[in-house]
Structure formats: C-alpha cells, structure tokens
Design brief:
By secondary structure, the protein is α/β, with parallel strands linked by helices. Helices cover 46% and strands 12% of the residues. Strand 10, helix 18 (443-455) and strand 11 (460-464) form a beta-alpha-beta unit. The longest helix has 27 residues, at 282-308. It starts with a helix and ends with a helix.
Length: 488
C-alpha cells in the first residue's frame, strides 16, 4: 500500500470515529419511536425458550419487532450457526442438521395449482411446531410485533420441484423458482395468504435474493431464466427477440470463458464486452425482462396482502448486491417501488462487506473488467460508481467496512425514498460469519454502525443476519447505541 493511500485511509478512519462519537447529537430530534427489529429463526426459540429469548432481545437491544423466519431453505436466517464458524455464547452449543422449509402448519385450501405439494416443504427440524403459533402470543403480550420473513429459495429434492424451477441457458434447473412461472406465483401467493389468514401477524417481508442473466454471465453464475413460461411471456410482450437474446448470451458466455483462459481481445476486454452488448441489445432487454418478472412478483404479493388486510405492512429484503453491483442497483430505483412497497430492509452489513466486496471483485473482473487489476477495479471504478470509499482490495477482507459506509448507504436509500411512503430499515451486521482471520464484529464497530445508520434518519433498523449467530456483547452494543439515541 502506498504511503499516501495509507495516510488517506488513516485520516478517513479518524474522521469516521469522531463523527460517530457525536452521532447522538446529529440524529434527527423529531425521529420519534423507532422500529428495532431482529431476524430470528425457530431454532433459537426451540433451543432457548420463547420467554428467555424475548427477555434477551428486549433487555440487550430494545427489540420491538421480530422478522421471524417462517420459510427458509438457505440457512441464512432459520438455522443455527453455520458449521465451521464459532458458536455464540447462547443457545445449544452444537451445529445440528439444517434442511429448512416451512416452519408453520400448512393449510391446503390456500394452495391451488402450485405444481408442488406444499406439505412436502414442511421443515423436518420441528415437524410438530408452528413457530408463529408458538411465538406470536408471547411477543404480542410484550408489545413486540411479528413480521413473517420468508426466503424464496427451493430445494431440488422436493417432489416435482422441476415444475417451478428456473431453467438456465443450457436447459439446466436452478435452485430458485421462476417469477414468471404461474405455479410458482400461486405457491408464493398461497403461502402469503396462509400466514396472514391463519395467524395474527403484523407484517409481511419477503427475501428474494436473485440476479438476472447479465450478471450471471459476467460472474459465471447460471444464466437464467429460459423456461417455457419466460419464453411464452416474452413472445406475448414482443419486446425481446428470444433467439437473438439466446445467441447474445451464448456469445457473451464464450467471451467470458475465453478471457478466463488467457485470450486477450485486440481492442481490450471492456470495449469488446460493450461491443457484444451493442451487437446484441437483446441481452440488456432480457436482463430488464427478468427484473420485470421480479417486480411483477412483488406486485402480486403486495396486492394479495392488501386484499386481505389493507393496512398490513408489506416489504422486501434488498440484498447486498445493492452495495456492490451497479447493474443490480440500476434496476431498483427506490421511488419507483412505492406502488408495491411499504418497507425496504436494505442490507448495509459493514463487517462482512469487506470480504464480500473482495469476493465480488474476484468474480466480476475476469472477462469484461480484465483491463483492470483488482485494486484498480475497486478503488478507481467500484468505489466511485457506488459512492463510498473504503480501504484497498488487499485490506478489506481483514478490516471490513467502516461506519461511514453504513451512513452513506442509509442516506442514499433515504434520499431515494424521499417523498414516498416507503420506510427504509437498514440491515445492521452483527456477527455474520466471515472466513478465518478475516474481520470480525466488535462491540465498538456494532455500536458505530447503528449510530451511523440512524444518523441518516431512518424509521428503524434490522439487526441481522440472525440471532443464532450473534454474540451477546455485540447485540448489547447495538442496544447501547439505541438507548444512547433515546430509541429504547
């Protein structure tokens, strides 16, 4: 690292520390009561007891809302600590076996033409427990609201899963359902209705972490979706030439492979990448078509929620790609989401962001961005385009991101939602697992992240990723910041 870069980083770090020390004075005085939510799965209540967990959440962090994982196949929220990472200082001191699925009783009358039998998705970890029935009465007695939190991943071994899965460019099935597939639409809508009509929930939150075909091609992920329902919808709309889109993605995928094998294009990598996009504008059209399918799914769920309970809050978890990917961010202009959005939980995970950003650069650079070094792509492109600045590529896995990053992202989201009804709830990183020897959360860093988020003026925060991996000292540090600001 050059001396001037080191000095610049050191000065920036001092400035961040000083600003966060004064965050209580800088927070909006008219903010009023804030939502202090936490993401939590059934396993925590089963391991530790409902009342004990609620005691800890209120006493340590002033929690007044639960994002309760009712449906999850990804182990991001529902399970215990991810195997291989240190267990926290609460809960069972074992990793257990995670399969996931639906943690509530399933009422078949709400599921019509879903392609799969919803009973096949019942989580086997606690087959006789309906986690909403178990937690809701105790939470409401304490004045804690309960939002359903569902991740729309699926398992390939569910009977008839192929009827709802995405299909990639080469005809292979993906571990996501297709948002243009009517069976999958009916399944997600039926699940939403089941939770709402069967339980006295306070809100609905869906996590749909997914990207379109363009990002898949660049990052060597599956290029989706080309199932029969996507093809039929595209033909009906007449906005994308399907054959040209397929050909364009084949050319782009071959370009990426050749670059990774050592081929150097005559006109450089980035120019050649854009030449392909210009020769095949259907690539961008298909990318936008895929995101329109996701937006249509949002709209359908939102309409279902409002048809049942017009005053029920409904919102979406927006993944970390919003920090890293200019493609992802370009497809999600916050103000345009107002007709189908009450809440956005925007991921602003400061500590794991360093590791994740380095991984993102490593995935994205080969091919389209091979004219850059990793360091240049991060420092001279990524940070400038995404409007924040952290440490160097070699450093960030070990340092994480600063509280200034949280403030900038929270302010960006708040500015994007200005003039709309959308409530922005920043997601705060508390002990999200990172690789060995990489940056780990600390009480001081957690406190500063919470203070930084509230300095942007949001109506709430979401302590993330899940209680079952959080150390109590870091959870208490979040609570300390919340109490310092007078929000608990």
């Amino acid at each position: 690292m050059e001396r001037r870069d080191f000095l610049r980083s050191a000065v920036a770090g001092l400035a961040v520390s000083a600003s966060e020390a004064d965050a209580a004075q800088q927070a909006p005085a008219s903010a009023g009561k804030k939502v202090i939510a936490i993401q939590i799965g059934a396993v925590s209540f089963m391991d530790e007891g409902v009342e004990k967990v609620l005691d800890i959440l209120q006493e340590k962090a002033g929690v007044n809302a639960l994002f309760l994982a009712v449906y999850d196949y990804g182990n991001g929220i529902a399970g215990r600590q991810v195997p291989g990472h240190p267990l926290p200082d609460h809960g069972k001191q074992e990793y257990g076996t995670f399969r996931g699925g639906n943690y509530c009783n399933i009422h078949p009358q709400y599921y019509k033409d879903t392609g799969i039998n919803p009973q096949d998705t019942r989580a086997p970890e606690f087959p006789n427990v309906d986690i909403l029935e178990t937690v809701l009465p105790a939470a409401h007695k304490r004045g804690i609201k309960v939002y359903t939190w569902a991740d729309d991943k699926i398992r390939r071994d569910i009977p008839n899963a192929s009827k709802i899965q995405e299909v990639d460019l080469n005809g292979r099935l993906n571990d996501r359902g297709c948002y243009n597939n009517p069976y999958y639409q009916n399944y997600l809508l039926g699940m939403t209705e089941d939770y709402m009509r069967s339980h006295d929930v306070d809100g609905v939150m869906w996590c749909m972490e997914a990207n379109g075909a363009l990002e898949g091609a660049i990052s060597f992920d599956p290029i989706t979706c080309f199932c029969q329902f996507c093809q039929e919808k595209a033909r009906k709309q007449g906005i994308v030439n399907l054959d040209r889109a397929r050909k364009g993605f084949e050319v782009l995928a071959e370009f990426q492979r050749s670059c990774r094998s050592g081929t150097h294009p005559v006109d450089g990598y980035y120019v050649t990448f854009w030449r392909i996009l210009l020769r095949y504008p259907e690539i961008l059209a298909w990318e936008h078509f895929w995101h329109d399918g996701l937006r249509d799914m949002y709209k359908m769920i939102y309409s279902k929620v409002k048809a049942i309970k017009p005053d029920m809050p409904c919102g979406w978890h927006i993944e970390h790609s919003s920090t890293f990917s200019h493609f992802y961010r370009a497809e999600r202009e916050i103000k345009e989401m107002e007709p189908y959005t009450d809440i956005l939980k925007e991921v602003m995970y400061h500590n794991c962001a360093g590791e994740r950003m380095a991984r993102y650069i490593n995935r994205m650079r080969p091919g389209a961005y091979s004219d850059f070094t990793n360091e240049d792509l991060l420092m001279e492109f990524e940070y400038k385009v995404m409007n924040f600045r952290e440490r160097s590529f070699d450093q960030i896995p070990f340092t994480g991101f600063s509280a200034d990053y949280v403030y900038r992202e929270a302010k960006r989201a708040m500015d994007g939602a200005a003039g709309t009804k959308i409530a922005i709830w920043p997601g705060i990183d508390i002990d999200i697992p990172t690789a060995a020897n990489h940056s780990e959360c600390t009480p001081g860093g957690t406190r500063d992240a919470v203070l930084a988020a509230f300095r942007a003026g949001p109506p709430g925060v979401v302590l993330s990723r899940k209680y079952s991996e959080m150390k109590l000292a870091n959870l208490a540090a979040a609570g300390g910041a919340i109490r310092q600001l007078g929000y608990a």
